Hints:
Number of helices: 5
Radius of gyration: 18 Å
Helix content: over 70%
Number of strands: 0
Low-confidence stretches: none
Largest sheet: none
Oligomer: single chain
Strand content: under 5%
Distance between the termini: 27 Å
Structural class: mainly alpha
Number of domains: 1
Mean pLDDT: 95
Amino acid sequence: xxxxxxxxxxxxxxxxxxxxxxxxxxxxxxxxxxxxxxxxxxxxxxxxxxxxxxxxxxxxxxxxxxxxxxxxxxxxxxxxxxxxxxxxxxxxxxxxxxxxxxxxxxxxxxxxxxxxxxxxxxxxxxxxxxxxxxxxxxxxxxxxxxxxxxxxxxxxxxxxxxxxxxxxxxx
Length: 171
């Protein structure tokens, strides 16, 4: 149980950080997130403007660095937990939970609550109409959550393999 609590706590911390980063960057320049909008909205808006492409690369680097740090910090705690050993199942469960706490927060809080339910004007892409179906498409975001489950499961397995290999090399 301590392993699960540890992973959820680090997942929630990561969710607060990434949620602020995603919503803050969306507030500053929603056009850098064009690739994440539903198809009808993307089609109406067009391709990501050149000036926004560099911004999304920078935001992406910060996101990946934050995720790596969150996973590393969560895994560092595992040996200190009651019965905690850095075994492959414990590594996998920790990484998977950290990822999926954020996946769940992204789906329910960022996508459904902020972007679909509240729908702030600053999240509506210029030249598009907030009444477009895509801006009210809960199913699109749910499918994104399901894709996230698959992606995070595969990524968790890969990260587990890497961590096990590194631990064996360093032992």
